[in-house]
Amino acid sequence: MIHMTGISKVYKNGSVALSDISIDIEKGDFLFVVGPSGAGKSTFIKLIFREELPTKGQLVVNGRNVTNMPLSEIPYLRRGLGIVFQDYRLLPEKTVYENVAFAMRVIEAPRREIQKRVNSVMDLVGLKDKFRCFPNQLSGGEQQRVAIARAIVNNPVVVIADEPTGNLDPETSWDIMRIFERINKSGTTIVMATHDKTIVDAMRKRVIAIERGRIVRDQVKGVYGYED
Ligand code: ADP
Ligand code: ADP
C-alpha cells in the first residue's frame, strides 16, 4: 500500500529530516509513528500525500510512484487518501454538512449519492445532529469528528493523521481513537503520528519509532517506548 525504499529528506535550509528510510505498510495496517519532537514524523507523513518530495529514494503509495509524479497527478493520489490534522482544518464559512459534502462535490459525485454518503459518515462519527452548525460552534472533539468524516467520505484506502488527538483531552481522544479503530476494522489502512503514550500503549498496534530521521524500532504489537 505504501512502500518506501531508501528515502531521505533534506530541507532547503540543510535540515536533515529523514535518512535512508525503508518501510512497507500493507493494506489494513494500523501504524503508529512515534518519536521525539523534530525526529521526522511530520515529514514522514507529508511525503505520503506529496506535501513534500523526498530528496532521495523511491516512494510508492497506492500503486502510484510519488517520487516522479507530475503535479497534475497529485489530486488523483490524494483522492485515495484521507488526511486528518491536529488543528482540524475545516472550512470556517461552511456548515458541517458542506465541509464533508465538499470533498464529494470536488469529484463531481451525484447529489443523491452525496446526501446518502454524508449522512452515513456523519452517523459513523456520531455527529448526526450537527449538520447545520458551523465549525466555531463545535467543540474540538466534534470538529475533529467532522474532519474524520471529511477524510473518509470518498472511501480512501489509507487514512493518514498527524497528531489527531494533540489538542484534545484524554476522554475525547479516546472517542476519536475508537472512530479510527472502526475505520481500520473496515479494511482502511491507518498511519498516525502521535505523542499519546496512553493510547499507543493500550491499543498495541504496529509501532515505528523515528529518531534523528531514522527508523529505530518497528514492532507488530508495539508500545510507545518514551516517558513523555
Ligand atoms: P517531528 O514531526 O518528528 O517533530 P519534523 O518532520 O517536523 O519532525 O521535522 C524533522 C526535522 O526537519 C526537524 O529538524 C525540523 O526542524 C526540520 N524541518 C521540518 N520542516 C521543515 C521545513 N519546512 N524547512 C526546514 N526544516 C524543516
Ligand atoms: P445544495 O446542493 O444546494 O448545497 P443540499 O440539499 O445538498 O443543497 O443541502 C442544503 C443544506 O441542507 C445543506 O447545507 C445542509 O445544511 C442541509 N442538508 C442537506 N442534506 C441534509 C441531511 N441529509 N440532513 C440534514 N441536513 C441536510
TrEMBL record:
Subcellular location: Cell membrane
Membrane topology: Peripheral membrane protein
Transmembrane segments annotated in the record for this chain: none
Pfam families: ABC_tran
One of the record's GO molecular function terms: ATP binding
InterPro entries: AAA+_ATPase (IPR003593), ABC_transporter-like_ATP-bd (IPR003439), ABC_transporter-like_CS (IPR017871), ABC_transpr_LolD-like (IPR015854), Cell_div_FtsE (IPR005286), P-loop_NTPase (IPR027417)
UniProt GO BP: cell division
The organism's place on the tree of life at top rank: Bacteria
Keywords, in A-Z order: ATP-binding, Cell cycle, Cell division, Cell membrane, Membrane, Nucleotide-binding
GO cellular-component term (any): plasma membrane
Residue span(s) of domain ABC transporter: 2-227
PROSITE patterns documented for this protein: ABC_TRANSPORTER_1 (PS00211), ABC_TRANSPORTER_2 (PS50893)
Described purpose of this protein according to its UniProt entry: Part of the ABC transporter FtsEX involved in cellular division.
Family per record: Belongs to the ABC transporter superfamily.
Subunit structure comment from the entry: Homodimer. Forms a membrane-associated complex with FtsX.
Name of the protein in its database record: Cell division ATP-binding protein FtsE
Organism: Dendrosporobacter quercicolus
Source taxonomy: Bacteria, Bacillati, Bacillota, Negativicutes, Selenomonadales
